[in-house]
């Protein structure tokens, strides 16, 4: 299997709602399904990043209710693990009432494990038939353990095994930008057709997301007032922000993710798509550019981790989108590097504030930075490296970004979590 196919299989998939609480819901659905019976208790253990990204975001089907507890309860009560990150697509009013009852009776227990430096979710579901345990690690759908009443259950086909996941991540770390571009050039018709599904999915999410009147509506007001020109930049910012507004509001509609993140998928897909439409680039070239966007997003995250203190819409998806836009105009490694460097200079320190309604602002900023970087890079502008975090090669710059988030900002999550705990106590 090619590297591109592995990335598309493991990291690019439909996702309904913020992927961290939905991943918890998926684990709960696995645990509940394997044991069967009437659910009476759900216990969740998770890493700091999952906790941070899941506590302040609305959950699909929950009518505005926020947080991991309601997501886990719904996953255990009505989630179908076959639906992956769209596990909450079939929530009914009766399911929601039952989930709220579990919460009211204090039967949903949450235990953050801040010692885990990677995505880690363990859910134990107790029913009148016993208990089920599911563990998802290092990938939003990467089920590595499933137990029924203490006995391991053989994985069914379709579950993504840890070794396969680790293997492609090790491989992508060895790749050069030129090698990633070659992967894109070798993309099959099936690869490109799947990528095209993501365009339509995310455009529909944007259309529906405008109804939530979030940050996208504010940008649209600026455009209507004449304070912002009606052009590529404003149109892209409105489009991507609307899709994010919908997701963070609990919209029951999927987006195509990238790197296991819906917001990253919005940036990685829609920015190069709209750039290509604006400049009348051929359809196949646009699709290949989006494949490159996904690969670069995956490349950065392979070094930085699935969840990080820095906003990966910026340092991973934004970088990938900028590179993709330049690739559409000219397959020039140096110009693509200029675009990567420009985004790194612009957004390298944007920290992740957890998933919430403010994500649409970061998504719009990442899109703006990617477009600006692509435009200036295509024009030959660069900030030459080595210069701070800017390396001599594109690979160095991206790895430097990852090092900042994995090492340099190691305490950032703890500080943000401390603030969130104080807020919860008020």
Give an overview in words.
The chain folds into two domains: 19-164, 60s Ribosomal Protein L30, Chain: A (2-Layer Sandwich); 175-419, Orthogonal Bundle (2-methylcitrate dehydratase PrpD). Helix content is 58%, strand content 10%. The protein has helices at 3-11, 19-35, 48-54, 68-78, 93-104, 162-173, 177-185, 189-209, 215-224, 232-248, 262-278, 283-304, 312-329, 333-347, 359-378, 394-408, 412-425; strands spanning 14-15, 39-46, 108-112, 120-127, 130-137, 143-148, 151-152, 255-256. The strands form two sheets. A six-stranded mixed sheet has the order 3-2-4-5-6-7. Strands 1-8 form a two-stranded antiparallel sheet.
**CATH top level assignment of the largest domain:** Mainly Alpha
User: What's the CATH topology label of the largest domain?
Assistant: 2-methylcitrate dehydratase PrpD
Low-confidence stretches: 156-163
- Based on CA inertia axes, which overall geometry fits? globular
Strand order of the main beta sheet, please? 3-2-4-5-6-7
End-to-end distance, in Å?
A: 52 Å
| Largest sheet data | 6 strands, mixed
Number of DSSP-assigned strands? 8
Written as H for each helix and E for each strand, in order along the chain, the element string is: HEHEHHHEEEEEHHHHHEHHHHHHH
The helical percent reads 55-70%
What is the CATH homology-level superfamily of the largest domain? Answer: 2-methylcitrate dehydratase PrpD
